Amino acid sequence: MQRVSGTAGYGENADALVKQYEGISFHDVHRQVMHLLPAPPARVLDVGAGTGRDAAALAAKGYAVTAVEPTRELRERAMALHPEPGIEWLDDSLPDLATLAGRAGRYDVVMLTAVWMHLDEAERARAMPRVARLLCPGGVMILSLRHGPVPPGRRMFEVTLEEMTRAAEAESLEPVLHLERKDGLFNRAEVSWTRLAFRRPA
Asked: For residues 192 and 23, what is the distance between their CA atoms, to the nearest angstrom?
């Protein structure tokens, strides 16, 4: 079976990743951006939803969540772990999000947690307009970028703040958050993260 670009290493390690990701709470991962979320029942798109931890937490808060996960092994485990009725699961992938592109409706929040750095430069250039079109007026895109050594079997690229800012501005998105932090959740000294958010003007 052909793998979607950027998903290398995830299906093969699904069981270990479920244990790793589900061992950290949604609040611990996202507490610094919670103030950017509109009140439920806003529509949230979680791209690269992984094990469903974030989608489930958001659905439990009353959000209407569309969870996109291209890796079958993770998606199936996530659906079994988190059968909440407030989550719609989709087999779709960046950079094109072809399934979503054919549907009506836009989102108040698009979350891209530890996803964007899996795309190469050309894929990132294709992905930004597609993601931006999915934001409703006033909607916010929240993403995190990983920096550091690439784990064996994975596909990752370095993405700079300057590139992200230019790409967002080209789609008329305004920066509303920029945070830099060490990898405190997994205590990896060689890894750091950039957290960014951009808003479509209302």
From this structure: 19
